[in-house]
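User: Please fill in residues for this 170-position structure.
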């Protein structure tokens, strides 16, 4: 099976930590800073409370698997089109030290980007950074993932990948 990712060299760690310095606060949902937000979802709109109850409570496992497949395709397509790194936090979530990991292969990346079941805590979900796009990708629950970006031009790849996977920008 082998390792799916490896830590980057110290100089790359330092460069990325500086570029994404506000990431710990972004992950903790304390502050967005100078990032703009874009949600991507299998749903074509933000669900109302009633819609969420009918769409998410006691969801059929095959239906959930279809949603996960579309989000996985999106994450894989986006990550294949631009350099990206997996983010891990060492220590406490809010005050942890960021570490950046490179995937060991395309197959390892695909395995790492499989969405967790929708009822699992966000604490265990993947986080990616795309340095050339100044983009942060956060896997989230309820079949909706979140992107934070600094430049509007970063969304061109996102729009293409979303269209390809059949998911929606909210």
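Assistant: Residues filled in for all 170 positions:
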């Amino acid at each position: 099976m082998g390792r799916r990712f490896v830590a980057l060299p110290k100089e790359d760690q330092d460069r990325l930590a500086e570029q994404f310095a506000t990431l710990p606060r972004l992950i903790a949902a304390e502050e967005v800073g100078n990032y703009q937000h874009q949600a991507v979802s299998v749903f074509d709109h933000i669900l109302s409370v009633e819609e969420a109850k009918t769409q998410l409570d006691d969801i059929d496992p095959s239906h959930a698997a279809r949603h996960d497949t579309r989000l996985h395709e999106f994450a894989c397509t986006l990550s294949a089109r631009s350099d990206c790194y997996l983010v891990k936090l060492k220590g406490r979530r809010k005050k942890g030290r960021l570490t950046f990991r490179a995937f060991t292969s395309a197959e390892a990346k695909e395995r790492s980007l499989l969405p967790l079941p929708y009822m699992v805590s966000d604490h265990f979900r993947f986080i990616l950074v795309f340095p050339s796009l100044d983009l942060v990708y956060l896997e989230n629950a309820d079949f909706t993932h979140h992107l934070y970006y600094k430049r509007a031009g970063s969304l061109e790849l996102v729009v293409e990948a979303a269209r390809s996977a059949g998911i929606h920008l909210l």
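For context: The CA atoms of residues 90 and 97 lie 5 Å apart.
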